[in-house]
Fold this protein.
Amino acid sequence: MASLSGDFGSEQYGRITTMAKAISNDETRFRFAIGQIRLVEDSLDDGSDKTILVKRLVNWALQFFNKIGEFKSDVRMLYLWRLLGKYSVELKMEGVLKKVNELGFFKSASEFYFIWAEHLAEKGDRTNFDAVVSLCRENCHLTQDSVNQLFGTLVREHFNEDYHGDTADFLEMLKHKSPAPNNLSATNENPIECGASELDKSSDSQKPTTSVYTALEFSIDVSLIVTCETHSYTIL
């Protein structure tokens, strides 16, 4: 992979954003921006310069395209939100996903709940995993077969459980294990509201480890202001 200097990173940020703004068609501009961010993420060596560049580009893209109604709830935007969570120092992935849920842009998108559930499964947080599955089933109006197909593999891979019965058995298990959606609880010391619900505080062993990028926050203004109707939300 390639590396970069701070000056080069600033140059690339300016180049990418300037070229994107010069494109007149919104869909073409969106695909160009996503493609360039993906290229930076996949091609550059990990390190502080890459972290700063990716975060600046993601912040810019989210601010820019959230102002365009047709993109606000486009599932392709989830790639940007996921990157924001990956590189976030304060909120981390957990906090960003909860903030996205609060914004409500992807309330009926099963892709969002899968990302959230996958993150929780990787942490071994079964309680909140089941709650997210339940929330997805309710908000996306999924059939029993769809829920099983979407989340069954995560359960088998991360919770060492298998289902030898039919889908109804899987849903029955979730029905008894999952808290109601409005009892969703958070894992942060200061939980972020998730719409009408909150996530429970998890045990210390489930808390995400401190990011190695903590010292980078002072380098640039990486706060993200997302306007949703009359509200403004800040993500660090």
Observations:
- The longest strand covers residues 224-228.
- Residues 194 and 209 are 22 Å apart (CA to CA).
